[in-house]
Amino acid sequence: MSKRDYYEVLGIQKNASKDDIKKAYRKLAIQYHPDKNPGNKDAEEKFKEATEAYEVLSDDQKKSAYDQFGFAGVQGMGGGEHDWSSFRGFEDIFGGGDFGSIFETIFGGGFGGGRPSRSAGGARQGDNLRYDIEISFKDAVFGTKVEIQYSRNESCPACHGTGAAEGSGKKVCPSCQGSGQIRRSQGFFSVASTCPTCHGEGYIIEHPCKECGGSGAQRKKQRIMVTIPAGVENGRRVVISRQGDAGVNGGPAGDLYVFIRVKPHEYFERQGLDLYCAVPISVTQASLGADIHVSTLDSKKIKVKVPPGIQSGKLLRVRSEGVPAASRRGDLYIKIVVQVPDKLTKRGRELMEELSRVEGENDSPRPISLSELAGS
């Protein structure tokens, strides 16, 4: 598809001012932004088209080249050369941030729909923490409680989390005047970066607390009981609210993420809510059938009926002996393994030979089809 003229894309005349170019682009960007039109390919293409047009027409050098030579004039100058293959929204072009804050950075305030930015020095939630734990296969299936010990930042009792020594306070940062950001012009938009003096806090502490060194927090050990729900799978996590690092300036504490590793079991395996195990039986039991007793994961003894003539590898299903869940419990599948004795007594051999003669066995068996094997 051929490109449309950049002035036509933005709906402006060639003599449009920079303010008119900016207003026209802002209107289209708000209308067609992918975050406002999820899954709408047409809107995404129009947004890309408008952004490309704005990038050229808002730059005096590129605009002059385009007015004189058209698209050929801006090749190699950034016009029409974007790689949109990894396009995820406006943040891919201008280096991150949410929908509202990006437009606020470029166009100033007044853009609706964005999240309000955090004021420097305001209350902030503490950092989330991670704890890795290993539990047994049985505990993962039936659930358990485990006590863990870890370290986290807690509010300093000496300065009550302010970071300032008693009798002193905080001073507005002279570099950013309390905003926590330093703004610089870069091309056609303004770029805000974290203030290097106050590290984005908006204030500085002249007399830091001696107990915490001005951080407002102290590292302390914590012991808590963690409830592992029944049926948890390997790699899952349990989130414990407000057990992470203490918040800043009165903000809430972060969360604790407990990641679970499940140790493999010697006899049982799991697929979803179902459990699997293998049980050996003799050739006689396989031929004649038998009632066998099998130990479940929770150490119960259950009686399982083995039908006569069962083949090795056959699965027998025991309902409701698998992994418990909210609405139902999975099943237990028992894989039958027919064990052939590697040594026979003299009498045993005589009996086996007699059985072979009675059953008419020979040394030229016919092949078995795959469908017969699957149905055995």
Tell me what the structure shows.
By secondary structure, this protein is of the alpha+beta class. Among the domains are: 102 residues, Helix Hairpins, CATH 1.10.287.110; 107 residues, Sandwich (HSP40/DNAj peptide-binding domain). 24% of the residues lie in helices and 26% in strands. The strands form six sheets. Strands 10-11-15-14 form a four-stranded mixed beta sheet. Strands 1-9-8 form a three-stranded mixed beta sheet. The chain has a two-stranded antiparallel ribbon with strand order 2-7.
Radius of gyration over alpha carbons? 36 Å
Shape: flat
Terminus-to-terminus distance: 60 Å
Q: Roughly how much helix do the residues carry, as a percent range?
A: 10-25%
CATH class of the domain at 269-375: Mainly Beta
CATH architecture of the domain at 269-375: Sandwich
How many DSSP E strands? 15
How would you briefly describe this protein structure?
By secondary structure, the chain is α+β, with helices and mostly antiparallel strands.
Write the layout of secondary structure elements.
Layout: H1 6-10, H2 18-32, H3 41-57, H4 60-69, H5 91-94, H6 99-107, E1 129-135, H7 137-142, E2 144-155, E3 170-172, E4 181-186, E5 189-194, E6 203-205, E7 217-228, E8 237-240, E9 256-262, E10 269-271, E11 274-282, H8 283-288, E12 290-295, E13 301-306, E14 315-318, E15 332-339, H9 346-359, H10 370-375
Parallel strand pairs: 1-9, 11-15
Antiparallel strand pairs: 2-7, 3-6, 4-5, 8-9, 10-11, 12-13, 14-15
Helix pairs in contact: 2-3
